[in-house]
Structures are given as structure tokens and as C-alpha cells.
Design goal:
The protein is α/β, with parallel strands linked by helices. 37% of the residues lie in helices and 19% in strands. Helix 3 crosses helix 4 (67-82). 47% of the residues are buried.
Length: 226
């Protein structure tokens, strides 16, 4: 990031892999899905992060399932991911400090934008007592998920941000990076889930939120490298 930092009117944050670590629950659900479909987990694995489940199934197995079958399987996958007994949920490095700062100092200028549904997001919020932002956009709220820009554009609209390039998106997956850039926003990518070589379309790439310091100066969010 530039020496002077990056200034933003609002931060739009992905959830899984960015703020919370739900890897155990996500992978367990998709391994079950692979068994149900009779395919190797490796067939689904490239698509299980950062993309709504129904879209991920179609990308992994084009034409294999009709819309109703994809919807039913996606619902069961999300139900399994949201089950508190399915695995641990942990804060990603630096995430707790970030959301604490935003909730305290920029309460009306941040959003969570996730490819999961409200059930899954709610299970993570409950598990970690994660402060809720003023805007939460889930797969239940959009027609087209990431990498389409709709989720991020909807979040900016709900926050009443008129100039979308004033927003900074924080993402961990190529589909999320693509969604933010397609929305006309700047993107900070984290290498918490994918290597930097998969995130080259982002404006900046860091290891995790532990590498970023966020302050609010005169009503503007400023991100600086630690």
C-alpha cells in the first residue's frame, strides 16, 4: 500500500477467509457433497471458496444438475456449514481488531458481503460475537453472486455511497476480487486462502489483516501497512 495509506469512504468486507476461518465446516460440507454426487472432492475443491454454492456446483459440474437439484443440494450444504457442531469457527488474523475499530469509529461506513446465506453468516456472527455492520449482504439478497459486481454494488447503495470508487473491498478469493473490480472499486486482497499469484487483479495484496492498520481520521477510513 502507498506510504500515505489508502483512504476509503467505506470498507466492504468479505466474511469467510477474510474475517472468520470456517475452513473446517466448509470443507466438511463439500466433502459430503462430493460423496453425494459420486465425484472426487478435487472436482469441487477449486470452486468452494468465494462463490455461491449453486454457482459453484454449475462451474464444477456444468449441466450435471438442473436448477432445482442445485438449489436443494446448495441448501443442504449451507445447512451443514451453519451447524455449530460441524467444526470450529475462528477469527482470521487481525480481523477482530479491524471490526472493533470499525464498529467503534466508523459505525455507518462498513459492510459485510458474503457468498454464504444468512444462516451461515449468522452462525459465524453468533460463534464469535462478531459486531454486526450496518449492512450485511448475503447470497439471499442478490440475483447474481460473486464474481458478478451485484453484491458489492448493493452494499455501496445501502451505505449511500454515491462514488463507488471511494469504497475499498477486502477479499481473499479471486471471485471476490473480480466482483469488487467489476463494481468499480479498489480491492485489497489477502493471501489467507489463495496465493498472491491468483490475486493479481487486486490493487494491493497482503498476507492478512494483521498486516494492516486501520484508523479513522476526520470521518475517513485510512488503511496503512503495519
Amino acid at each position: 500500500m502507498p506510504d500515505g495509506g489508502v483512504r476509503a469512504a467505506a470498507l466492504l468486507l468479505d466474511l469467510d477467509g477474510t474475517l472468520v476461518d470456517t475452513t473446517e465446516k466448509v470443507e466438511a460440507a463439500w466433502r459430503w457433497g462430493a460423496e453425494e454426487l459420486g465425484v472426487p472432492f478435487a472436482t469441487l475443491e477449486p470452486y468452494i471458496h468465494g462463490i455461491p454454492g449453486s454457482q459453484a456446483l454449475e462451474l464444477a459440474l456444468p449441466g450435471r444438475l438442473d436448477a432445482d437439484e442445485r438449489a436443494a443440494l446448495t441448501d443442504e450444504l449451507l445447512l451443514r456449514m451453519a451447524d455449530p457442531a460441524a467444526g470450529h469457527v475462528r477469527w482470521m488474523p487481525g480481523a477482530r481488531d479491524l471490526v472493533t475499530t470499525l464498529a467503534r469509529d466508523a459505525a455507518d461506513a462498513w459492510a459485510i458481503v458474503t457468498s454464504g446465506d444468512r444462516r451461515l453468516a449468522g452462525s459465524s456472527v453468533e460463534a464469535l460475537a462478531l459486531p454486526l455492520p450496518p449492512v450485511l449482504v448475503t447470497s439471499d439478497d442478490v440475483e447474481l453472486g460473486k464474481p458478478h459486481p451485484e453484491p458489492y454494488l448493493q452494499a455501496a447503495d445501502a451505505l449511500e455511497i454515491l462514488e463507488v470508487d471511494a469504497c475499498v473491498v477486502v477479499e481473499d478469493a479471486p471471485a471476490g476480487v473480480a466482483a469488487g473490480k467489476a463494481a468499480g472499486m479498489r480491492v485489497l486482497a489477502l493471501t489467507t486462502t489463495y496465493p498472491a499469484s491468483d490475486l493479481t487483479d487486486a490493487d494491493w495484496v497482503v498476507g492478512s489483516l494483521a498486516d494492516v492498520r486501520v484508523v479513522v481520521e476526520e470521518g475517513t477510513i485510512v488503511l496503512r501497512s503495519r
